[in-house]
Amino acid sequence: MTDNIKGKIVIITGASSGMGEATARDLAAKGAKVALGARRADRLEALVNDIKAAGGEAIAVATDVTKLEDVQALVKAAQDAFGGVDVVFNNAGLMPLSPLDSLKIDEWNQMIDVNMKGTLYGIAAVLPIFKAQKSGHVINVSSVYGHKTVATGAVYCATKHAVRSLSEGLRQEVKDYNVRVTIISPGAVNTELTSHISEEGLGDAVRDVVSKIGVPASTMADMVAFAISQPANVDVSEILFRPTVQP
Ligand code: NDP
């Protein structure tokens, strides 16, 4: 079903590392044209060079998903470079875990802004295009923590529950103009995500667990490719995956 990926124009946020980067490499290798957004422009440029050297098509745009105009500029750059947009993969996210009584309010705001509002801005930037062309695919990243809530994860879990909720609302609203919506909810994946945990003692403990049980970032790429490669009348509404040993 790789043919359903070949030629597709795919926007990927959070493409500078982890699952976004792995998905960009994989989709480009399968013939998609990828438009990559994140704040670390140097990482994106290096990734674009790698993809092009391997025969793929990619562009990079420095993007802060907490700014609607940045996400709109990323989408516009994809339209200008490739002639349209078929898929948006709203993947950018942060997980600075901490107990609420540590009052890390800046980190709460960051998670709400990136994980939740960033996803909404990705939707806002493509929805008029998808509605006009009567096709498109929105893929949003939630988490196992979008299905349950854990201590030190109250805010993170809340943002990931919100991603699932807004995705399901979106799916019901856009089905009549043939737009697919997919939620992908990973368990532990070996990426840089845990590097932002500033809570004393917690970061090392979480990093230790994830480094032992986490699955590779390419697992997400496989899931995204599966969802995109279905026939247009098949909406993979949700995928939940985790390391076999994760509770
Ligand atoms: P990484 O930390 O490797 O990647 C996160 C990406 O998000 C980076 O490319 C980062 O780029 C980007 N990002 C962060 N803030 C912004 C911003 N303001 N604007 C644009 N991009 C931003 O982690 P993962 O690959 O693991 O994370 C990908 C997604 O998967 C996240 O939504 C995460 O919550 C989710 N997830 C991860 C799990 C895991 O175990 N790893 C489990 C469940 C869900 P830059 O810093 O350059 O802007």
UniProtKB/TrEMBL annotation:
SUPFAM superfamilies, per database record: NAD(P)-binding Rossmann-fold domains (SSF51735)
Key words, A-Z: Oxidoreductase
Keyword Transport: no
Pfam family, one: adh_short
GO molecular function: oxidoreductase activity, acting on the CH-OH group of donors, NAD or NADP as acceptor
Ranges of residues in domain Ketoreductase: 8-192
InterPro entries noted in UniProt: KR_dom, NAD(P)-bd_dom_sf, Sc_DH/Rdtase_CS, SDR_fam
Protein family per UniProt: Belongs to the short-chain dehydrogenases/reductases (SDR) family.
Protein name from the UniProt record: Oxidoreductase
Organism, scientific name: Martelella endophytica
Lineage, opening ranks: Bacteria, Pseudomonadati, Pseudomonadota, Alphaproteobacteria, Hyphomicrobiales
